[in-house]
Request: fold
Amino acid sequence: MTTAVAVPPIRGARKARSPGRRRGSKHVVASFAKNAVALVALVVMLFPVYWMVLTAFKPRSEIITSTPDFSPLHSTLAGFSDAIHKPYFWDYVGNTAVVSVATVAISLAIGLLAALALSRFAFRGRKFFLVVLLAIQAVPQTALLIPLFFTLQRLHQLNELSGLTATYVIFDLPFAIWMLRGFVHAVPKEVEEAAMVDGCTRLGAFRRVLLPLIVPGMVATAIFAFIQAWNQYVYAYVFMQQNDRYTLTVWLYSFSTNRGTDYSGLMAASVLYTLPVVVLFLLVQRKVVSGLASGAVKG
Amino acid sequence: MKLRRIAPLCAAAAGVAGLFAGTIPAASASTSLTVWLMTGEITPSVYNAVNSVFEHEHPGVSVNVEIQQWSGIGTKITTALASSSPPDVLEIGNTDVPEFAATGGLVNLTPLTSKLDPKHNWLSGLAVPATIDHKIYAAPLLAGDRVVLYNEQMFKTAGIKTAPASIAQLETDGKMLEQKFSGRKGFSALYLPGQYWYAALPMLWDHGGNIAKHVGGKWVGDLSSTASLAGLDEFKQVQNSLSSVASRTVNTNLPDQDAVFASGKAAMIVGGSWEVAAIEADNKGLTGHIGEFAFPSYKGGPAPVFLGGSDIAVAKNSPNATLAEDWIKLMTSNTFQARMYKADNLIPNNTSLIGIGRNSPVMKTFLQAADHSEGTPASPGWAIIEGDNTMTNLFQDIATAGSDNAVKAIANRVDNHLDQVLNEQL
Amino acid sequence: MIVTQPGPLTAVPAGGSPPKRKTGRLAAARRRVDWMPYWLILPATVSLVVVLGYPIVRLVELSFQSYGLTQLFDHTTVWDGVTNYRVILSSGSFWSSVLRTFVFTASCVGLTMVLGMAFAHLFIRLGKRMRTLLSSGMILVWAMPPITAVLVWQWLFANQFGVVDWMLTKVGLTSFANTDWFAQSPFSAFAIITLMIVWQAVPFVALSLYAGLVQIPGELYEAARVDGAGGWRTYRTITLPLLKPIVLLLLILSVIWDFNVFTQIWALTGGGPNGGTQTVGVWSYVEAFVGQSYGLGAAASVVTVFIVAAISFYYVKHLVSTSEVR
Reply:
């Protein structure tokens, strides 16, 4: 089987290349049906999110009512104002940004290297390594908290963003390696070797042929790692010792005290909290799609 | 195209660089005393005042106050006390204190009690949990209790002239309120969630009952004693007759009982002083129209209250134990306790200051009620009982129980659990 | 520089290939160790060993100790032999929680994979704008912090003033109104918890499967079409086999994660009613972590790892053996 593939073939790119394709009525109905299904799915999935956004704009008194209000009677930005004016908010933003970005970058880099080794080479200890990675994933994070605390203490990494990042990275690494290995594995070795035949170096083959193909998989892995780091509370709270060193999750949990919860503040905070993830996804997605499309056009 | 590749790398590099910015140690010229206080209680105006006096008395020492969140605080304190550089002073909730006092994480403050509490009038609900084998490991810091908050306008409409002073009167008044406001869907004369054990315990203690007794060096569950059963039955009676059916399986948070009160779905709730402000924020029409009375005893008069609150301790591994103790001396002194009350409406740590609120219409009742308080068993195993939802399940089960025999069976079951857990060595 | 690798030689087009050694020296070539893979996994290995090495060793050690706050603060060690394991393995409530967890995990994973596949196929067929909209919505769901998600689901299903309650009443199913979904029966409680877990897990599975679908070379579909294969046959012979590795991978990861779910269950039901929703994660928390019995908790973790390892044994065996076929 000769598969001289230098083009990353993507469904989307396909459609982009033939805009003038005639659409019969059958296509129109099918297209309408697909979009309808997508919209219904969207509404159902997003209902809890909608409820969160809704509550963020409600004044305290309207949050629990006997008849649910599907739109706020008196919408207010008080929740949002409370949320942003909490002490150290901007410190937390900075800390969280640094830790999350670093975690993703490091996990992907280290993970990709390991994934390449595990899927492109056959070496002694490969099976063992894979099994150990899977076993690590099965250990509950709660159980590791105290031993990790002492490890970081010994390494003088407590209360340091680098220590927190290191913790997040090793939580992500087993998963990232397994995922990336799966995606690399799905690309046949022949594809890279064909490129090398055409004169690419090994690194060149990797960059020009393999990498574009596994980018969607890398994106999924990266988002997972990002969300893990972004949503981590206990470790951030316990490993950091100073008020200006916490992450945004600590800010999120600060709306719940022993005297009750500030619901509109918490919902407003949650809305603000999820936005960066979506923005990042949209940015990355656009790059990914444009990168793939340009690769496709190149031929 | 090259730019696309570089941008993420730059971000990563910036990220990594940012991490190490924090690792460069700052040069310190003086000693620093680290104090951990819980969020939402003592405000900066109070502790800054303490700090300036302290720093004046100890030149060269600066105080650093770190505010802590409630969620995960048990884990945070555990790791902190076990670490080589714990905070010097830390505030610990009075129900969490036995666990840390009994296991060697805190400094024994008994030698200081003569200075800290010369008149021996620390609130027992705060002092007893910190005392293990006649040694005290933390000083009482602040307290909060709960009394009945009532809607004065509703009482007037229903023709109730004075606040009920006994359980019997409470039930009669409750029936009048039910009759008047039965039109409101899900109305409760006294909204008492089934899981709300802080409000249920007073009834237990009122009849002379107890959660557990310390007998011959061992903890024994006491819920199935005659006295306790009388208290549990009273809870069931009051809850079932005065509170809505839907309230039997929930706690005060969902739905928020302040919202229930503010929306007119309840004429009475059992709440803390901070809830008055929360209700007024929800419904401005109620401002100034919320009355308070202590939860009544079946004998007439007030029932004992459940005292929530915190103690303040010195970490065993702290290198500045003496300084820490000096800070505690200041914070627990009557001067600053009075200041804390005035600024933050927190009940001070000893009975001599109860009269401080006599001129405040709202706080007066809360302070008076604190005079007669009881606490949870001072066993380190109590942390487990709170953590595994034994108390919330106990009262929820009683509220939903079908008969008195069922209540007895529940009490026996929980007693067995208490027998086992309260005697565990942590 | 092209590196020759030991191991099964892959079939390459006759036109060009890495220079093959003559048969006589092939054995020697095979014996030469290729250091490249070891260099590649070095960063991962070093990171894991440095940060996680001691904790894992310590965890196993702790499982043989009686270790609580007293030992933690006093730095003493009390060896306990296999007591912790004996306590766990002889506990009736532990085994019922294991059984419950199996059923719970199976339903969560099953639903997640089916819905994830459905969404992935939907993604492929959608236009770019709709796909971006739907996938962004999924990211929103995925990124919602657990504390908020739990709260919102509690509000939606609150027995008084809850939206679901209101909707059921409006639709006329008044017999279901005022149900205490979380407290009345383990089944209804598990149903809601499963829904919530699946709801938040689907986005990741859908996007990963979509990534997998997108990787399949279009040429294969072209070739199949040219050969006259219909839609279903193409799907069976091309799509499914190529998607299978990723599906299996997501399956095993989901099993591992869902087996250990704790936070949401604890927040929604506390393991109730009457322990009816107590999974292994909840059991470990209630029996060990709530009382800070780290020895027992460590043993529970080790037992959990063994159970999960047993479940994933066949998968790992299959996976590792198939990759050797290459």
In short: Chain B touches chain C through 31 residues (CB under 8 Å). Chain B has two domains: 31-143+309-370, 146-306+379-421.
